[in-house]
Amino acid sequence: MRHPIRLTTAAALGALALASLTGCSSSPAAKDREAEPLAAGTSAAALPPPRSAPSPAATLPAPPRRGEVRIEEGPFTDRVRLTGLSLTGESAVSGHLAITSDVSDVLALELRAAYYDAEGRLVGTGSFEYQEEGQDADGGHHHDGPRAAGEGIDFKAPAAKLTGTAAAAVVSVPVLVNE
Amino acid sequence: MRSRPTKILTVLAVTGALAAAATATANSAPQQGDQGKKPEIRNVIYLLGDGMGRTHVTAGRERFYGADGKLNMERLPSYGAVATSAVEKGSDHPALVTDSASAATAWSSGVKTYNAAIGVDSYEKKLPTLMEQAKKSGFATGNVSTAEITDATPAAQMSHALLRGCQGPVYSDAACLPKKDDGSYEDKPADKTLITPIAQQIARNGTADVIFGGGLARFAPDDQKALQAQGYQVLGSFGDVALPAQTAESQKSATKADLDKVKSGKVVGLFNRGNMTVEKSKAELPADAPQKQEPTLAELTRKSISLLDGRSKKGFVLQVEGALIDKRSHANDAAQTLGEIKAFDDAVKAATDFAKKDGHTLVVVTADHECAGFNIIEKGTFTNAEAAAPPANNDSGNTANNSVPARSSSANVKDPARSSGIVNGTGSGSGSGDAKNFGPATFRTPDDPAGVKDGSEDASLWLTYLSGNHTGADVPIYAYGPGSGAFAASQDNTELYTKMYRSLFGNAPRGH
Question: Which residues lie across from A95 on neighbouring strands?
């Protein structure tokens, strides 16, 4: 008498196993859910190329003062404090950046400098990049050196290729990502 | 003949799975969804407290409801634990402490990946997400967070990126490209989606019908245009198309008043340019502060459900994140952390209230990882961080029990330089202003006598932190509704994807 029960149980489990393997365990309603096309009105828009930071202005609206460093308002300038900005003789903007909101770890930061001659014409650009993404992963890309979180970080954005003599600079912060 | 062993193993494996499921359900209190005939699961609401470990839940309970009380999430009938480890990039070697990106990819796509990865595997291969699959199959979908909506947790359901930092508004190598061992950036991938700012992806892929959170600064006017072209209502303004870059002045955050006016349809509401405001801070601001215009997570959850319920005959999938539990735990700010746990738990109530009425809704509540080694110590005691030396390790009565290094109990005293007083208790009169102080944060509970103040030595809830980073501890999971018994188990975070997929589609995802 016990054998039929055993067999039935085994058969049921086997059927369940087979159903599980073949995907036949779905209820009719569930199966009905599976392969519907994208619902009306939900079509996605085409994805354009990755958006780039805006190019610096070709000319400044007014000739700059020699050594002047301006801050260009942007998406993150209300989240940072830039101090000690100076344009050195070697054509590099330096200073200190401290983040004033969302103050947990800084994953990525980019600061750009556009260099202008005494007449306010663009003569070159430079940038300062900071990345500590993935630093928590064993064997990952750990960030060495000063950290941008907390008291902030000193930066230097040297001009890459100048086409004239840099007399002033405009600094922008196109990238800021906090943990 | 060769196939027989496989069949036998399969039967055994299924038998084991059934037994495990039966045990888990038996350990749960009886619940609506698992009694008698099983109702069809139409909706899945997945709520997670970012960084919310087991002790966060306990501390929240004791702070707001007392030792005998329960948070709303603790009232759910099924309870289990989730293991959260990640893997190292380019391998399947475990990385024992996850970040939010890897964890969110695990439950969104069912695959372990490297820390910082969004919707890609350890080898940078794009993975389908549960929300994408639900959307494609005709479910209504929603994604809510108190973080920037481009942050890791919401992003992993509706975008794909090599690095979680690639949030926008613009691409940059530093934010979007991983570094190689020599410190140079990897080559750009052939699939440019993986380095397209997450904001751009979200605005165009139509994966979520309802999108509520912070992060307005990540978006630009062309994103608003793309959303509106797909039929979304966009609350507030993404900025001035005439400007090369948007600013705090050019963009307008959505408000609770905007939210209240929405009655139906696809909606995007970004209520802060960065993360939404911590509830404790919001409560302390003057009435006319702009942050006061932000809705609570519970209000966002209720509105999302009202917009999604009935939108599709199939049902809906909604993810809700209480993100600031983690962010305030990183900062070791216990007062704000507790407030965010309460705000998250209120959102859990909003979800379960709906589920109880609906009868076809599975509610899952969990976390992505623990943050900061949050702990409850006995009133009047101190932690290693406050001590001049670690606890004693010496048995002079039976020297065979001595270990190395031997330590005397006399050195295990509070170091006044490291523990100059209780900190971070609201209303603290004895709190130290010393920023280097490792003292505990103390809070009164409903069990304390009247007059006991937060931040005093008399308050009974003493909270401490191990660090300012994530830990590898398992996190709790609670569930309610049809199919909730499956979550009453000790499980890996990738299994959450498999179980939710089964709940929605009735069978196992391919390859799982």
Answer: A155
Q: Answer yes or no: is A81 within a domain.
A: yes
The Cα angle at residue B296 between residues B138 and B376, in degrees rounded to 5: 110
Q: Do residue B164 and residue A79 have CB atoms under 8 angstroms apart? A: no
pLDDT tens for each residue of chain A, 179 residues long: 333 333 333 344 444 333 333 333 344 444 445 434 333 334 578 899 999 999 999 999 999 999 999 999 999 999 999 999 999 887 999 999 999 886 677 889 999 999 999 999 999 999 999 987 644 443 344 456 667 766 789 999 999 989 999 999 999 999 999 88
Counting Cα atoms < 13 Å in the Cβ hemisphere of B239 gives 22
Structure tokens at B15: 């038998």
Nearest Cα residue to B63 out of B392, B409, B345, B460? B460
Mean of the pLDDT values across residues B172-191?
93
In a domain, A41, yes or no: no
- In this prediction, residue B425 has a pLDDT band, given cuts at 50, 70 and 90, of confident
Is residue A58 included in any domain, yes or no? no
Asked whether residue A141 is assigned to any structural domain, the reply reads yes
Question: Cα(B302)–Cα(B436) distance, rounded to whole angstroms?
Answer: 41
**Tens of pLDDT, residues B468-479:** 999 999 999 999
Residue type, A173: V
Q: With bands split at pLDDT 50, 70 and 90, how would you rate the model's confidence at B64?
A: very high
Cα–Cα distance, B451 to A47 (Å, whole number): 60
Burial label, B361 (beta-carbon count in 10 A; 0-12, 13-18, 19+): buried
Closest CA to B365 of B142, B113, B82, B58: B82
Name the residue among B385, B406, B386, B382 with its Cα closest to residue B396: B406
Report how far residue B21's alpha carbon sits from residue B442's, in angstroms, rounded to the nearest whole number.
Answer: 41
Please confirm, yes or no, whether B145 is among the known catalytic residues: no
Range of the domain at A155: 69-178
| B14, pLDDT greater than 60 | no
What single string gives the DSSP state of each residue in A43-108? PPPPPPSPPPPPPPPSB-SSPPPTT-EEE---TTGGGEEEEEEEE-TTSEEEEEEEE-SS-S-EEE
Q: Spell out which residues of chain B touch residue A128, defining contact as CB-CB under 8 Å.
A: none
Q: Which residues contact B505 (CB under 8 A, 6 or more apart)?
A: A26, A30, A33, A34, B133, B137
Domain total in chain A:
1
Find, among B3, B8, B55, B17, the residue nearest to B367 by Cα. B55
Task: Report the alpha-carbon distance of residue B154 to residue B100 in Å, rounded.
Answer: 10
Rounded to whole angstroms, the Cα distance separating B114 from B393 reads 39
- Strand B370-371 to strand B233-234: parallel, antiparallel, or no bridges (unpaired)? unpaired
- What residues of A are in contact with residue B273 (Cβ under 8 Å)? 75, 78
Structural domains of chain B ordered from first start = 39-374+469-505 (3.40.720.10)
- Helices B4-26 & A2-22, crossing angle to 10 degrees? 100
Q: Which of A104, A134, A175 is facing B116, going by the closest CB pair?
A: A134
Selected residues 106-165 of chain A with any CB under 8 Å from a CB in chain B: 107-110, 129-131, 133-134, 136-141
Closest alpha carbon to B220 in A114, A58, A74, A77: A74
Residue B33 in this model has a pLDDT that exceeds 80:
no
- How many of the other CB atoms lie within 10 Å of CB of A37? 9
